[in-house]
Each structure stands twice: as structure tokens, then as C-alpha cells.
Design a protein that fits this description.
With 390 residues, the protein is an alpha/beta fold. It is built from 15 helices and 15 strands. Helix 1 links the parallel strand 1 and strand 2.
Length: 390
């Protein structure tokens, strides 16, 4: 299989962690067909030159993908569809790119350059896992690509994924009103984990020798491998930007859509139970302290807004009763936002109920945007299938 490694970033200014993943592939004798780097703002081409010594490299800048445009035109994709798939007005206007657009750029480049398997990793994950041995936490290298390919080679499996070891994206916290906050954010599972955070500091470990592989519809975009022919049955990645008090916020969950739509097919997504190390806050092993670290507090604030921006569309997609869900979330987020603002001594969190209102008001626009994206994507997939056959 022709395997491509895909990375999305704002500024490409470091070989880390790509070089580690390529070294890992080489060590375990997996040939990497190409590395695909999609960036929005800047790229250090000296680094690209050094990377080319290890693999074929494609670099694509958002809103500057002339080669992809020309390829799609030659295949007969309509100008309207090309514009929908490749134009990112939010970048020009606000300097931000929805996560879904970023990932779709990588997928399009992979398809157009002959890849068969696309492996996405984030810029802060590594091909090793955190394990507990003799009462000590250690890093352990694993055959990252081999773990994914072992199951991806099965005919019925089109996606393999898994979670992360390292500190959870939500740092340790505990306060009255926390349950309401996470109910309002539609992150109930997070609350169950956080109520015991004083015991584990929100540090996740790999299961190591007790590994259990299972079927799932939860896809994590920073540790996922996809058979590209699966896009004949799968939708594109999708997420949005929404405006909260003049600030343009990126919604989360661009990978959630794939999991939901996968249920409608006879194909499978397998969690390979390989929790690669996520250096979540950039300073592992320091225990994250949200009350005294402004960067961690900022990250959590924007994560909250990102989940709120995701939820209305996610609930629509799942066929939920929108008004009923919204009512419950609003009730909880009003209590939770006041509680977390007090706990963190940060009044920004008081805007969460307003953000929730905005996100539900925006739902019609988001559905329209999704349907347009889906039509354009289906045309692209149909044309590339014909092009390959011809």
C-alpha cells in the first residue's frame, strides 16, 4: 500500500514530529510513499529540502493550491465545486482556517498524487506510548504504522484510530458546578474522568500488554489512518468558524462526522488501542495547572467555545431533538459558566451561554454550508474515480 503521512499546521517551522514518524517507519521497515504538509501562514522551505532526503514531500498552502485546482479542472470538476472545496474566506478575513478544510486539503492532495492510505498525525504527537513499569512512567517506542496497517489490511476496515497517552486536553480541575459545565459543553465523559483528577492528574497511559482492540465510531484526527478508497462512501471532514463577540472561533469535531456517517455503511473503524504520546501542553512531565498558567487557561477557554460551536451541527446530524437538547444545555451552561469563571478567576467564561445561543442560531447556515461542501466533495470523488479508471 502507498502510505502517505499527513500534517496540518499554521506555520511549518519544525521537522518535529515528522522526522520521528519517518524514522519509526524506517526502523520497522514500512515504506512511506509521501509526506503531505498543509499550512496556512508560513513554511520554512529549508526544512522541506532536508525532509525530501527521507521521502517525497508535497507542500500545499491554504488558498494557494494552484496545482490542485489545475488537476481538478483537467478532471472536469466544476469551478463552483473547486471554489467550495479550496477557497477559505475565513483565512483572508480573519486569519483562521476551519479544521475540516485543512484536513480536506490533505485528503485531496493524497488522492490526486496516488496515495492509498493516509495517516494523519498532529504536530504534538509522537510514535511512542506512555506506560507504567515497576511503578514508573516510561516512554516506549512502538511500531506505529504496523499497528495501523495490521487492521487496515482487512477488507472491511477502512479506518483505524486510537486515543493518546499523556495529559488529557482538559487539565485537572474540581469545583462546584463542574458537572453542569461539562453537561452544557456536551462533554459528560470528561466530567466522569475529572472528578478523580486529584488521583491521576489527568494523565492517560497506554494499555501496553493489556491492549484491547475494538470496533468504534469515535475517530481521533491526530492518530488515524484511512483507506482513501473509503471516501467513495465517506463524507469529507467538516467544521466551521463562528463569531462570538467579534472573535472568530474554530469549532471542534471535524473528525466526528466521519464516525457518524461510517455507521451507515458496511465498513468498519477499528480502535487499535495504541495511545501515542501527546505532549498536550508542550512541557511534559510538568503537571498542568490551569489556575496558574494563562496558556493552559486560554487553551481550555477556546476548547469550550470550540465544543459549543460543534454541538448544534453534531446533534442535527445525529437526529436529536434540537430544541430539547439546546434547552438542557443552556440550563447547565448558565450554571457551569459562572462556576468556572469564579474557579479560574476569569470572566471570559461568562460568555459561554451567549456562545451557545449564537451556535444554535447559526445552525441553518452551517447545514447549508455542509450540504454545499458535500455536493462539491461528491463531485470531486466521482470525477477522480472516473479519472483513475480512464
Amino acid at each position: 500500500m502507498k502510505i502517505s503521512l499527513g500534517i496540518i499546521t499554521k506555520h511549518f517551522n519544525s521537522l518535529e514530529p515528522i522526522d520521528e514518524f519517518l524514522d519509526n517507519a524506517s526502523k520497522y521497515k514500512h515504506k512511506i510513499y509521501s509526506v503531505i504538509i498543509v499550512y496556512s501562514h508560513s513554511c520554512d522551505y529549508n526544512l522541506i529540502d532536508s525532509l525530501k532526503e527521507k521521502a517525497k514531500v508535497f507542500t500545499v498552502q491554504i488558498n494557494n493550491a494552484q496545482q490542485i485546482i489545475e488537476q481538478q479542472k483537467r478532471m472536469g470538476v466544476s469551478s463552483e465545486s473547486i471554489k467550495i472545496l479550496l477557497d477559505c474566506p475565513a483565512l483572508e478575513k480573519y486569519g483562521v482556517v476551519p479544521y475540516g478544510i485543512n484536513r480536506n486539503y490533505v485528503v485531496m492532495q493524497a488522492l490526486l498524487s496516488g496515495s492509498e492510505v493516509l495517516v494523519f498525525v498532529d504536530t504534538d504527537v509522537y510514535p511512542r506510548v506512555l506506560v507504567k513499569e515497576n511503578n514508573q512512567i516510561k516512554e516506549k517506542e512502538i511500531d506505529f504504522f504496523g499497528r495501523h496497517l495490521e487492521y487496515l489490511q482487512k477488507e472491511e476496515v477502512i479506518i483505524t484510530t486510537s486515543d493518546y497517552s499523556g495529559y488529557y486536553i482538559i487539565p485537572p480541575m474540581n469545583f462546584s458546578g463542574m458537572k453542569e459545565l461539562f453537561l452544557g459543553l456536551q462533554k459528560e465523559d470528561a466530567y466522569e474522568f475529572l472528578i478523580n483528577s486529584e488521583k491521576h492528574n489527568c494523565l492517560n497511559l497506554d494499555n501496553d500488554k493489556k491492549r484491547k482492540v475494538f470496533e468504534t465510531d469515535k475517530i481521533l484526527g491526530g492518530n488515524v489512518a484511512i483507506k482513501l478508497r473509503g471516501f467513495k462512501e465517506l463524507p469529507p471532514f467538516f467544521s466551521i468558524v463562528y463569531n462570538v463577540n467579534g472573535e472568530h472561533i474554530l469549532s471542534r469535531g471535524e473528525d466526528t462526522l466521519l464516525g457518524i456517517k461510517l455507521r451507515e455503511t458496511d465498513k468498519k473503524c477499528i480502535d487499535i488501542d495504541t495511545r501515542i504520546f501527546h505532549n498536550t501542553f508542550g512541557n511534559y512531565p510538568v503537571v498542568p495547572d490551569i489556575r496558574n498558567n494563562s496558556n493552559i487557561k486560554d487553551r481550555f477557554y477556546y476548547a469550550c467555545l470550540g465544543w459549543i460551536g460543534r454541538n448544534p451541527f453534531l446533534n442535527w446530524l445525529k437526529g436529536e431533538d434540537i430544541e430539547e437538547v439546546k434547552g438542557k444545555q443552556k440550563e447547565n451552561i448558565i450554571i457551569g459558566s459562572q462556576a468556572v469563571a469564579s474557579y479560574l478567576n476569569d470572566e471570559r467564561f461568562l460568555i459561554l451561554p451567549k456562545a451557545l445561543e449564537i451556535s444554535y442560531i447559526d445552525l441553518k447556515r452551517v447545514i447549508d454550508e455542509y450540504r454545499k461542501t458535500l455536493r462539491a466533495w461528491n463531485e470531486f470523488i466521482e470525477k477522480i474515480e472516473r479519472w483513475r479508471e480512464g
